[in-house]
Amino acid sequence: MLEIYTIGEEILREKCKKVDKFDSALELLVNAMFEKMDEADGVGLAAPQVGVDLRVFVIDDHRGVRKAFINPEIVETSMEECSMEEGCLSIPGVYTYLTRSKKVTVQAQDVKGKTFRLEADDLLARAVQHENDHLNGVLFVDRLDEKSRIKLIRTYERKNKLKRGSVE
Ligand code: NI
Fold first, then answer.
1. C-alpha count within 13 angstroms, C-beta hemisphere, residue 4
2. Alpha carbon of 158 to those of 87, 142, 152, 153, 163: distances in Å?
3. For labeling, which of 9, 36, 49, 83 is most exposed (least CB within 10 Å)?
4. How many A from CA of 87 to the centre of ligand 1?
């Protein structure tokens, strides 16, 4: 079973590597990630969150889309934005409203290496942007202004009984 890495771990800050082997090891990773995401009741999970330095994420929007995205690229983003409450399994217990594009088009490969394109709206678009950020070492708190970010981190530390300033 995979372990979820939390903020402060170096792997969450890395730019992940492209997948070039579509083999059974990749399939095992993706299946384990789905399992972990379901167990944690999440909408998405990215490979660096389970300590794997690869451009892979899985999403289940609980509205009919359950998919693995390998080597994803966001190829279009809408000018229209929306604010939605966001959280992350790597920063458990804290949530905040964040503005992002309302719609995105993502191109990715499936677990067999076949390329697909998906137009995503609302929660799905949100999840794609959030998970894609993880592959570039970006966490949702980085998208807040400095003051709000520090405040959220302090709340996280308090809730998780961590020493103040320990994840900075
Ligand atoms: Ni996350």
1. 20
2. 16, 19, 10, 9, 8
3. 83
4. 7
Q: Write down all domains in the chain, each with its CATH number in brackets.
A: 10-81+102-140 (3.90.45.10)
Q: How far is the CA of 64 from the centre of ligand 1 (A)?
A: 20
Q: What amino acid positions are annotated as catalytic residues?
A: 131
Q: How far apart are CA 29 and CA 47, in angstroms?
A: 8
Determine the Cα–Cα distance for residues 46 and 33; give it in Å rounded to an integer.
Answer: 8
Burial of residue 6, with CB atoms counted within 10 A of its CB: 0-12 exposed, 13-18 middle, 19 or more buried:
middle
- Identify residue 53 by its one-letter amino acid code: D
pLDDT, one tens digit per residue, over 12-34 is 999 999 999 999 999 999 999 99
Per-residue pLDDT for 126 more than 80?
yes
Separation CA 7–CA 90 (nearest Å): 6
pTM of the model: 0.96
Q: Is 47 within 8 Å of 5 (Cβ atoms)?
A: no
